[in-house]
Predict the 3D structure of the following.
Amino acid sequence: MNFYDQLKFNSEGLIPAIVQEQSTGRVLMMAWMNRASLEKTLESGRTHFWSRSRQKFWMKGESSGHVQQVKDVAFDCDGDTLLIQVEQSGPACHEGFKSCFFRSSSDGGRTFRVTEPQLETPEQMYGKK
Amino acid sequence: MNFYDQLKFNSEGLIPAIVQEQSTGRVLMMAWMNRASLEKTLESGRTHFWSRSRQKFWMKGESSGHVQQVKDVAFDCDGDTLLIQVEQSGPACHEGFKSCFFRSSSDGGRTFRVTEPQLETPEQMYGKK
């Protein structure tokens, strides 16, 4: 059976993709893919997504150079979520952190804190606007 | 600033929650939460979700006993995805695997394979139907 036959895209033709750094297990980000961005991801070995806010096909790292090299693509029991193992070049987050999940609460939501260093500033990544 | 003020629920009042096993880094599942299930998760220390297909509030493990003890709740740069660290009792997947992401492709989608052992059968977990 074909890989794509296992997958269910939602009513907008999208599927959420969790991106994990294979070497460390760190979850880096979650973004959405349509069929074309998944095909391009599998074919090129670099992650491509669909931006819902910008209604635009994009490659991770196209502006920052911080691309993701794909190692493995898993899908869940319901076929409606992807888990992609990558090697990440530089910070994954557009705010300059390794992971987009750089803030968390471990006291039941009473407080939260930044849990990792900012590796670069957005200005360093994208230039001054 | 309040934890909840950082979060953006979608037009259906939901936010996707990635669940990761803290001790191993294994991503176990992705499910959706509404505000009530997130509050219950933070208050009780056990994960609660909102089932879109059943339109129902549920606690992970309510039928199987395979509950998730919450260790940390992170949110991403856009505030529209959660990453929850847990200790998982038994398999997380209703098909009896540790992780719902038990199938993957590492050859660009040409083939996929089961990557972990099935720990229990659904019959063992839920009884014969």
Observations:
- The CA atoms of residues 123 and 129 of chain B lie 8 Å apart.
- Chain B has a mean pLDDT of 95.
